Amino acid sequence: MAVATARPGRWPVGLAVAIALAWSTAPLLADLLARRLARRTEHAHVTPHTSGGPSVTTILRRGDEPEEVALASQRMAEQAGPVVVLPAGEPLEVALGAVRTDAVLLVSGRSVPEPDACRRAADLLDDRVGWVTGRTEPFSSEGFVPDSLDALSARLRERARRADLALWEPDATLVRADLLREHPLPVGHPWGTWLRARRDEGLRGALSDAVLSYRSSPADAESFWPDTIARQRAAAADLARAARHGRAGRRVLALLLLLHEAYAVGLLAWLAVPVLLGASGEFPSTVSPWWALGAVGACSALCSTSLRTAQGLRPRPREDLSAALHHLPGSLAAVPASLTGRLRRRRGAAPRRPLVWAALALTVLAGASLLDRGEGATSKASVGTSLAALALLWAYSMRSLVQRSWRRRTARLPLDLVATIDGVEGRTLDASPGGLAVRGDFDTATVRRGEPLEVGLDLDDGNRTTLHTTVASVRAGARGTLVGLQVDPDDESAGPWLAQVLRAASQSQGLRDRSSRVTTIVDTEARRLRGRLARLGERVVHGLAAAVSIVLVAALALVLLGFRPLVIRSGSMEPTLRIGDVVLAEQVPAHELRRGDVVTQPGRGGMESMTHRVVSLRPRGDALTVSTRGDANEIGESWTVRRDGLVGRMRWAVPWVGRIGTGVRTSGAQLALGSAALVLALVVVLRPSRGTGATRVGPTPA
User: Fold this and answer.
1) Which of 197-201, 325-329, 513-517, 687-691 shows the lowest per-residue confidence on average (mean pLDDT)?
2) Structure letter (DSSP) for residue 104
């Protein structure tokens, strides 16, 4: 039986695989440890009942969310009870001065409280119970990226809280107002620190299985990255602080959850494997690379499937992988918070297309190590691994470039109500706080884009309301006319509509799979690109991504088929081959060479390889002496190769393509590129982030 042994000098690949595998097991170990610790912990839980319960004030903290999203959230929150809007940058104490209730729910500008669940949770607050932690759910699964990773992280934190690990759950932590006044929340530190300090004073928290709020998941790239990066940094900082506080078991649990939040380190180790394989030129083990890669992939898939099954989540490999890749920049940005446990204010705006630039960087790294090697043939296993990794990353990065819903600001819910337009009845298809889609036999001559329109709606509570809207789009089809309507949340008629959307969000939790398949609406908050410069920038990014992906992935595919791209760096073969031409050389046995062939002499002793024409061939036993000379040279060279040894013979030549790569090798070009990269980095870091307009501080009536 063959035994797999590691080859000397190939340890970096094995180390990267070991780190990746160990990192991927951290959340599974955290779940097992949390279950064990939870057996010895008792918590108060919400018991469902029908009483109204005390009222709760919602403090809505503004951030980087779009103005219309925050306004819709505010109006919907007003349907649930008193609301205090806190502008970005204002201290919480300002808002607490306007609170007149015993309980407070702090939410972001994207979230809306679930009134009945909040009242039932507030019933648990007393002299010993200072806070109640519940759950938050998205309005629908139709965000920019599937929320499977968010759901898994939330389930793991919930399991940890049952093991007596005090963690702040964003948008789902209900707190006694008097505690917040007496002990202000820390600035620059995660709010979980506040919970652990109160627990040290003898207070405790209660757990609720109910959904305390609903979030409007970012539906466009521009909003997705700032929102997810901020949330991931906050979670990592909270876990980093928890890992330094309390008993040993809880500290280990917090550390394992922290590794899960910083999964970017493990994923980067996976992505480093093809780069390291390309640098070494061969697989680091004597076992078949396909068996080894299959075993590693199976172990990783088994860990992920086991973890999601244990949390009651159905494994969906494609969605899970998509979510992991799209959250990778946020996980990477959370690494500093994981080390310091602090939340430093970001000075620059989050990137809109981080996966595209990551794909470009990885392509260049993998391509540079695999192409134009000085000697020997590149391992097909390493090329195949690189191609698989690049294709995967490009598939998800290109999604962010071509996604049609970029400029739609909020997610949509399935909603089936009777809607009347100009006396003609239709049915609603879906809805969001800012709009709805209606299908019916409407007259396109009277229903025109940009025109105001009154819509009669039969709500699911038995009432009827008239909604003032603006026609965003009209599209005729075989099943009727589809009308996209925009709703102004600040309009007086929008109150019953927003209450209806909130009820639909509560009722749609069992229909979330369906919501992502609704055939529907035109972008109700679509915004045109600002001017020709914005459109030009979009086209440049598209063109750059397409060009790099086509050229370099095609080059890697040629290597996989046995060809080697080689760049001509001297004029020794002019006029046949000029500087900057790319030669595609096929690997053939030396005994197949013929006089006149253009071949590549492998580099030896630190010398670069040379591509010259064969002048003569002289057999010497099992070896072959090859004499070559450049077409522009007067003196040739001779070298020896085994008769069955592989030699690169030119199959095709592509003029001029490699001139860019040749130019980058010069010190002047490298200095210019390095300076440009430094200037660009400084601009991104030092550019002030865009503020969100302040609204007001003060209570609003229910």
Assistant:
1) 513-517
2) E
Q: Is 129 strand, coil or helix?
A: strand
Contacts (Cβ under 8 Å, ≥6 apart) of 11: 284
Residues 6+ apart with CB under 8 A from 22: 266
**Beta-strand pair 646-654/598-601:** antiparallel
Q: Taking the C-alpha atoms of 147, 148, 152 and 158 in order, what is their torsion angle to the nearest 10 degrees?
A: 40
Q: What is the 3-state secondary structure (H, E, C) of 479-526?
A: CEEEEEEEECCCCCCHHHHHHHHHHHHHHHHHHHHHHCCCCCCCCCCC
Average pLDDT over residues 613-624: 86
Q: Is the pTM of this model over 0.85?
A: no
65 has pLDDT over 60: yes
What architecture is domain 413-515?
Answer: Beta Barrel (2.40)
Q: Nearest 5°: phi and psi at 85? A: -95, 125
Task: Identify each DSSP E strand in 62-102 by its residue range.
Answer: 83-86
Q: Does domain 582-654 have CATH number 2.60.40.1120?
A: no
Domain spans, the chain: 413-515, 582-654
User: What per-residue string of b and e applies to 540-572 under the rule 16 or more CB within 10 Å gives b?
Assistant: eeeeebeebbeebbebbebbbeebbbbbbbeeb
**Topology alike, domains 413-515 and 582-654:** no
